[in-house]
Fold this protein.
Amino acid sequence: MALATAGPKSTEAGPRPGAQPSAPPAVAGDPVDRVRELEARLNRQQEQLQGLVRIAENLGRSRDPGKAMRQMVDEISSLLAADRTSIFSLGSNKAMLEGIAVQGENSVEVGVPVGAGIAGLVARRGKPINLKDAYQHAAFDAKFDKLTGYRTR
């Protein structure tokens, strides 16, 4: 399964969305400020874990795969502070990604050839690509943006 998100929290050549650094950076200054920073990080990690639990609960409860997928996308978008999220799975022929793109109540099923566009490139390489501006990446295909009127960030 592949995940694509768009929104203000994307980073270029940075850690995966939601990933925490292995060791906190050294911070000089007031120890009280440092404690507040660490508490904020801990709270964010707790929120993310609770979100993952909600995703698992929804998947276990739902009898409608489409509804479960929309709920999962909503939760992931919230956790990553993304305004749009798409989830892809590799089709049975291993040549096509089958996905669902969701924004609010609207969803669309999409198919992307492996190796085409950013999602297809991620599928072929098996590694995430995090971008600040998708339009700056050579593999980005603005076709869906033109169809939907949305501008991927």
Q: What stands out?
A: Confidence is low (pLDDT under 50) at residues 9-17. Residues 132 and 153 are 7 Å apart (CA to CA). The longest strand covers residues 96-103.
